[in-house]
Protein: TF-B3 domain-containing protein
Amino acid sequence: MEQGEGIPSNEVENNQMGNPQTTPISNSGKSEIKEDEFWPLSGKPYFSVVLSHSQVNGLLSLPVKIVRALPSSSVSVILSYCGKNWDMVYLGGHSLKRLDSGWKTFAHDNDLKVGDACVFELMDSSSDVFRFRVQILRGDFPAELEERVNGETSNTPIVLD
Structure:
């Protein structure tokens, strides 16, 4: 196929593994949708979180739901998203069970914003390494809800029908 032939100007060709695919590109040059970005959960342990300001810019504490499946000590964690891996440490020996500063790198590399949601599915676990497959759901909140998402009006709940 000639370059540009049959491909809209907002798409680029992705020739991984010899399979031509197209990936829509936004005006900013960042990928909007990737084919391997969304999938059904497999029944393995998972947790999800809608990101707050402190989670985007620093710490990601893990909910009790998933902490029960993890050790009470520090172990290596690999987050996998769109074919890339980020190494970090789960700090299970601390009172606040969380990921170390590697989380901040993951958040920055994937341009996470307040209101985005992440689904973490525990794919593999051993005594020394835990691998989570991550789905990122981008939050496109209407302007009238944006203030609430940013925590400026926490006394007023958001009701979803």
